[in-house]
Design a protein that fits this description.
four-stranded antiparallel β-sheet; two-stranded antiparallel sheet
C-alpha cells in the first residue's frame, strides 16, 4: 500500500470519527421528547463526590415527556432533585417515596427555532473540522510527492479521493443535521 493510500485511509477513519462525535454531541440536545441524554451533564453530590446521575440511580423514560430516576439509596432523592434543578435544564423534578419524576415540558416554537440555530452552528463547526482534515491530508500528499514517496499521478488520484471523502463527510453532517432539525421541530 502506498503513502497516498494510507493518507486517504486515515482521512476516512478521521471523518468517520468526526461524524460519530457530531452524533454524540447532538444526542444531548433537547428535543420535545424525553431522552436520558438530557441528564448526561447532571452531577449528584454522592458522599462528597460529584458523581454522574446515571451512576447513583436507574434512569428510564416511561412516557414521551417523562424521565424517571430511581436512586439506589432512598436518601439520595432530595440530592438528585437539587442536582437536576441546579443543572438549569428547565426541569422541575418531583419526588415520591422511592423515585424522582422529571417531567419534560413541551418546547415553544421560538425555543425550537433557537435550538435548530444552535444545532446548525454546531454542524458548521464539524464541517470546518472535516475541511481542516482535508487540508492536512493534501499537505501530507504534497509532502510525499516532494520527498519522492509518491508519483504525481498517485498524488492526483489520491487528492480526488480526499475530495470525495470530504464531500461525503459534509453530506453526512447535512443528513444528521436534517434529521435532528426534523426531530426538534416536531410537536
Amino acid at each position: 500500500m502506498s503513502v497516498a493510500d494510507d493518507v486517504v485511509k486515515e482521512l476516512h477513519a478521521t471523518i468517520t470519527k468526526t461524524l460519530e462525535a457530531f452524533k454524540g454531541e447532538l444526542a444531548t440536545v433537547r428535543t420535545g421528547r424525553a431522552s436520558l441524554h438530557m441528564l448526561d451533564g447532571v452531577r449528584v453530590d454522592y458522599y462528597g463526590t460529584a458523581t454522574p446521575l446515571n451512576q447513583v440511580a436507574t434512569l428510564s423514560v416511561p412516557e414521551p415527556r417523562m424521565i424517571v430516576a430511581k436512586p439506589w439509596e432512598k436518601n439520595l432523592i432530595p440530592v438528585i432533585e437539587k442536582a437536576i434543578r441546579d443543572a438549569n435544564l428547565g426541569f422541575n423534578p418531583m419526588s415520591d417515596k422511592d423515585m424522582v419524576r422529571i417531567p419534560v415540558p413541551a418546547l415553544t416554537e421560538e425555543r425550537r427555532r433557537e435550538i435548530v440555530k444552535q444545532v446548525k452552528h454546531k454542524g458548521e463547526e464539524f464541517k470546518v473540522s472535516i475541511r481542516n482534515e482535508r487540508r492536512d491530508a493534501k499537505e501530507l500528499l504534497d509532502a510525499a510527492e516532494k520527498d519522492g514517496d509518491c508519483s504525481a499521478d498517485e498524488v492526483k488520484k489520491a487528492q480526488e479521493k480526499v475530495q470525495k471523502e470530504t464531500d461525503d463527510g459534509v453530506k453526512g453532517i447535512d443528513l444528521i443535521l436534517a434529521a435532528k432539525e426534523k426531530d426538534v421541530m416536531q410537536v
